[in-house]
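REQUEST
  id: r-88c1
  op: predict_structure
  target: Phosphoesterase
  payload:
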Amino acid sequence: MPTFFTSDSHFGHKNIMKYCSRPFDSTADMDKDLMRRWNSVVKPDDTVYHLGDFSLQPAKQVSQLLSHLNGTKHLIVGNHDTVKGVHGWSSVQDLAMTHVDDYKVFLCHYPMREWPGMWHGALHLYGHVHGNMQPLPGSMDMGADVWGGYPVTLDQIMKAIKPFSKDLQPKQDPFRVLSWP
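RESPONSE
  id: r-88c1
  status: 200
  body:
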């Protein structure tokens, strides 16, 4: 069964349409389209990791929304998520390390300059920035605004991600003013 990743759906969030130039006239239209895109690629037995900012709606509405989305759904909590009283998540965590295919994947809502396992080939998937930050090698923004509202597989991500290499890292910090004697 495939594993999918997405972030920053912001279901029910009116202002996100303006902030991110989403082409919808209403939150109802946006939500309907996001659900259609999700269910067009995610099947009931698939796994989905949502990397935060799923919805700003009250718990009851979030639970109803989750019941209409395919897959076993895991939430990595974002700064706008309601989790108390929400039903429909298989797990809720602040961050996670998982394995998908032959990859170790570190999941967090926020982008990091360095992450657990980075120097040993772990990938870092994150959200929060809505495509407004260049990903570091070995990392990728999973935001709905980056991926056209679709959850995506690791195969799709690997076609877009810049590989991490220890040789790409600067030998000296360009911001260091003084050196140790």
